[in-house]
Design goal:
The strands form three sheets. The protein has an eight-stranded parallel barrel, surrounded by seven helices. It has a seven-stranded mixed sheet with strand order 1-7-5-6-4-2-3, covered by helices on one side. The chain has a two-stranded antiparallel ribbon with strand order 10-11. By secondary structure, it is of the alpha/beta class. It is built from 17 helices and 17 strands. Bound molecules: ligand TNX. Ligand TNX binds next to loops.
Length: 539
């Protein structure tokens, strides 16, 4: 009896002891290192930061909780948990049923009221045992979550406690975007890119708070989107690409998958059907569309400006009505891009007549028209948007018409321009664009006299004449697109090349982890992941 008692007694004490130590492990004040928030490598640079020289304890005891009325906040929290798991291996619970007092917490808290500068604004308060992200909308939560992701170190500190800890620099961040439209364009027409490739590009852009992906879906060399009413567009027009390889196309289901994936990343897809020029693939599929009268055949070269629709035929507009209707029906975003560039085979009067009519079709299907800057020459509505790429005169005309302008000056933002004469891919008709040239300019003043409120934002187009796979895409887009993200998000007074250069150098570990074949520009002193880990271990 006594023996039994003492055995069960010591088991009891042992259990108690174990419980106390495990609670203690979680509760005990772990001395956290003093980290300087201002020395973190955030891109885009936030509006305001106040460092408090401490750190948040991100570890296995941390959980993520949400509070807010809007649907989707819990999904944003799960997105964060998934990304933290990918980076650190930690499996954080979202809104767990049980939490121990003193366990670190990341709170996403929706505060609809309040003086928010815009609906993507957020504040982040980071202390030893809590990160509080306050936001007016779930969209803002998604942007703020990117900041949290960037603040988490690549490598854990294993010297602070028995378990691994990823210390996050403490302080306050107040942040909001300078422009609402922060985009990149991908040309899937000259070379086709798969749904998986597009999704990877979306993942990478979202990390830098880019919120628009413009898909250039049609051109002389290929038609890449299924139109149910006109099946030959993809059967015939989708069969080729530059260089003679087989082309490809997105079924409407593929496109919906891209749109949904983009929506999960709080990104708008802008579909472009380029017309009346750049339409050889469409006219070969349906010859009544053609306005050149020349023999039609599939085209695998890289010339521009030789094709045009017949702008004076009603059947052409009936066709366009079907195309705009079908694509608009599966595009939740507000925009439809009609191209309208380099219509050298279209007479000027026909071009104007065409843009005027197509604008009405786009509006009928509930979308706002975007076109390359040439469209400003037509009698366009002030609600339509001009994408400035080449002609300042057209951009100015657009401004005079009360239109908003997207800035994509070829000399600065064309991702398909070579970095220098040694670049493996790309063209150089507009310029060579090394990483610093891409960053050192000001969207606010590039075109003289554009009022800031008429600048919708910045977009960096990636034309694909010289690239045919994801590695080549990444070579041209990265690292330059990271700079465009900052040019469109961050305030002008916060942008500085010398400072950006260091933050950009520190993106290498992320890009390496994401398997991005970025161009290691010699102008940047790239940080190696191993080097970073050594620095952290020194803390
Ligand atoms: C000009 S930019 C084009 C494209 C080409 C690009 C190549 C624009 C609106 N049109 O058709 O792909 O140059 O850099």
């Amino acid at each position: 009896m006594n023996v039994l008692k003492s055995v069960s007694g010591s088991v009891f004490i042992l259990t108690l002891l174990l419980m106390v130590t495990s609670c203690d492990e979680a509760k005990e004040e772990i001395p956290m290192p003093a980290l300087d928030l201002n020395a973190e490598n955030l891109v885009p640079i936030p509006t305001r930061m106040i460092a408090t020289q401490g750190s948040f304890r991100l570890d296995q005891f941390t959980s993520i909780i949400t509070s807010g009325e809007e649907d989707g906040l819990e999904e944003v929290a799960s997105f964060l948990a998934e990304k933290i798991s990918g980076k650190t291996g930690l499996r954080l619970e979202v809104n767990p049923l049980n939490m121990q007092e003193g366990d670190p917490v990341i709170l996403l808290s929706q505060k609809k009221e309040g003086n928010w500068p815009n609906n993507e604004a957020y504040t982040l308060s980071i202390r030893q045992d809590s990160i509080i992200l306050e936001i007016p909308t779930t969209e803002a939560a998604f942007r703020g979550v990117q900041t949290i992701r960037q603040l988490i170190p690549e490598i854990s500190n294993d010297t602070l406690a028995e378990h691994s800890i990823w210390p996050v620099a403490s302080g306050t961040i107040e942040d909001h975007p300078n422009f609402g439209y922060r985009g990149s364009m991908l040309d899937v027409a000259r070379h086709f890119f798969s749904v998986e490739d597009v999704k990877k590009y979306i993942d990478l852009l979202a990390y830098y708070k880019i919120n628009v992906l413009h898909l250039h879906l049609t051109d002389d060399q290929g038609w890449r989107i299924e139109i149910k009413a006109w099946p030959k567009l993809t059967e015939v027009g989708g069969s080729t690409e530059v260089g003679g390889e087989a082309g490809g196309f997105f079924t409407q289901d593929d496109y919906k998958e891209i749109v949904a994936y983009a929506a999960d990343n709080y990104m708008t897809i802008v579909p472009e059907v380029d017309m009346p020029g750049h339409t050889n693939a469409a006219s070969v599929s349906y010859p009544f569309l053609d306005g050149t009268g020349k023999p039609l055949k599939l085209y695998e070269g890289t010339r521009v400006g030789f094709s045009t629709f017949d702008t004076r035929k009603d059947t052409v507009y009936a066709f366009i009505d079907d195309v705009v209707r079908e694509i608009s029906a599966i595009t939740p975003g507000p925009y439809f891009h009609i191209g309208g560039d380099e219509s050298h085979a279209t007479k000027k009067a026909d071009y104007i007549y065409f843009v005027n009519r197509v604008e009405k079709i786009v509006q009928k299907h509930g979308k706002q028209m975007i076109g390359w800057d040439e469209i400003a020459q037509a009698d366009v509505d002030s609600t339509s948007i001009a994408q400035f790429w080449s002609s300042e005169k057209n951009a100015t005309t657009a401004i005079e018409k009360g239109m908003k302008v997207i800035l994509s000056p070829a000399k600065k933002t064309y991702l398909d321009m070579q970095y220098d004469t040694l670049s493996k891919h790309g063209l150089h008709w507009a310029a060579y664009i090394p990483v610093d040239t891409a960053y050192v300019w000001s969207p606010e003043s590039y075109v003289p006299d554009i009022p800031k409120d008429q600048i919708l934002g910045v977009e960096a187009p990636l034309w694909s004449e010289t690239i045919s796979n994801i590695e080549e895409l990444e070579y041209l887009a990265f690292p330059r697109v990271i700079g465009y993200a900052e040019l469109s998000w961050s305030l002008e007074e916060n942008r500085d090349w010398e400072d950006f250069k260091v933050r950009l150098a520190n993106q290498a570990p992320f890009m390496e982890r994401m398997n991005v074949a970025f161009y290691p520009s010699p102008r940047i002193d790239w940080v190696q992941a191993e080097k970073k880990s050594r620095e952290i271990l020194k803390d």
